[in-house]
Specification:
Blueprint lengths: L5 H5 L7 E12 L3 E5 L7 E4 L7 H6 L5 E10 L7 E12 L15 H6 L8 H23 L3 E2 L5 E2 L11 E2 L26 E3 L4 H11 L1 E9 L12 E10 L3 H22 L1 H16 L11 H10 L3 E4 H10 L21 H12 L3 E7 L15 E9 L3 E8 L4 H11 L7 H8 L5 E7 H9 L20
Parallel strand pairs: 3-5, 6-10, 12-13
Antiparallel strand pairs: 1-2, 1-4, 2-3, 4-5, 7-9, 8-9, 10-11, 11-16, 13-14, 14-15, 15-16
Helix pairs in contact: 4-6, 4-7, 4-13, 5-12, 6-8
Bound molecules: adenosine-5'-triphosphate and magnesium ion (MG) (3 copies).
Subunit structure: Homodimer.
EC number: 6.1.1.22
Protein name: Asparagine--tRNA ligase
Amino acid sequence: MRHTKVKDLLSSTTTLHEVNAKGWVRTFRNNQFIALNDGSTINNIQCVVDFENTADEILKRITTGAAVSVTGTLVESKGAGQKYEIKVAQLEILGDSDPEKFPMQPKKHSLEFLRENAHLRVRTNAFGAIMRVRSVLSFAVHNYFQQKGFVYVNTPIITGADAEGAGEMFQVTSLPIDHLPKNEEGNIDYKKDFFGKHTNLTVSGQLEGETFAMALGQIYTFGPTFRAENSNTSRHLAEFWMIEPEVAFNDLDANMDLAEDFIQYVIKYALDHCGDDLKFLEGRLLEEEKSKPQAERSEMTLLEKLNFVLENNFKRVSYTEAIDILRDSTPNKKKKFQYIIDEWGADLQSEHERYLVEKHFKCPVILFDYPAKIKAFYMRLNEDGKTVRAMDILFPGIGEIVGGSQREERFDVLVEKMKALGIDEEELWWYLDTRRFGSAVHSGFGLGFERLVLFVTGMTNIRDVIPFPRTPGNAEF
Ligand code: ATP
Ligand code: MG
Ligand code: MG
Ligand code: MG
């Protein structure tokens, strides 16, 4: 008999028919009740075993983690919290799981322990829920852009451009590391390497994306991105997924509108399509909150937070206004957290961003018009000559979730900027062609997909929202 997904069984409209379910045992109580999960939903289906007519050898093998196949009748359940259960007529153990050795027993595990078992942690309720939410969110990303007529572009993963992300790039070579050919000066001769030049893994698809936007009008990328982040934080991965839309003829205001609309759409989509998983994750967070002192507890539940983002506009604030707020907000310089920022032009630290979002505005914030000196070379210079049309979107509990800008469309201004920063014009000849042939106002942004998943799931460490996290010293799986 063909198996039916647990999710479909639980939403069945008829009972008393014969069904088959296959999945993994979560728990087995009183030698009778199997809580069976097959990954299709956070909910288990209860399977009631006729223990009097089942051999002891079989009963012994129904352990947490074992794969089983149950065939029986779908009946209404008398137990609380479940509509249906399966009255088992036939049970088959598909794969045993030694209870002494299976690490994912139904108890609370530390997140650190679970990370060390990234291949098995997905068997837990929380990680099953997170991975389903992640999957639905990626679908929502495509849905949003496709509905709006954006073209999905796959920018290269191996790139030859060195202009961005200096010091954060993973190098790519086909040669054995200890036999890299040297030139006469003793430097590595990349001309003899596979591509005939120095190459690395992409840190962003933006520059390539711009060239496509300047032909297709509106494009987006959604792909893996690599940064050799040398610090261990709860917000950075060495391999993450980035969504980068780029739109011709959009200025920074239109870019902000797009980012806000997009984020609200995907969050709404998750609420509409992952209600059970989000409710479960909310419950898990509420449990965690109980062990915290009252003052540290969150004012809103997870679902309240998500709905809040949908119902409220993001606050748009210029960098200069933000600096004034931060200056005024320093009540006492001796305090542990000094929100003071010494001078206009300094980059904001995460404590400043958190203050603005969590304490001052208490909502998502779009900061724009940053000092040119702290932003990338391709951003549109404002008439004041010192700020650029950049924006960062900051989220409560996360910090920066989006970085974007209106791009410098003026050839001469762009070249001058590159010169000043020592960026090789020849290397970016292809990028400069967008400004040579039919240049126009355009803008775009990059959104770190895992930071979005963090926000939606209420998790706090980015390692817990990607299947196999890549961080310094960690590429075990
Ligand atoms: P941060 O200040 O947090 O290091 P960034 O300014 O270096 O981020 P951008 O170059 O603006 O990042 O990239 C766009 C987006 O990609 C960021 O807003 C963030 O959401 C995400 N992002 C950047 N670096 C990482 C990373 N190492 N891991 C996960 N997401 C990242
Ligand atoms: Mg960074
Ligand atoms: Mg940043
Ligand atoms: Mg940024």
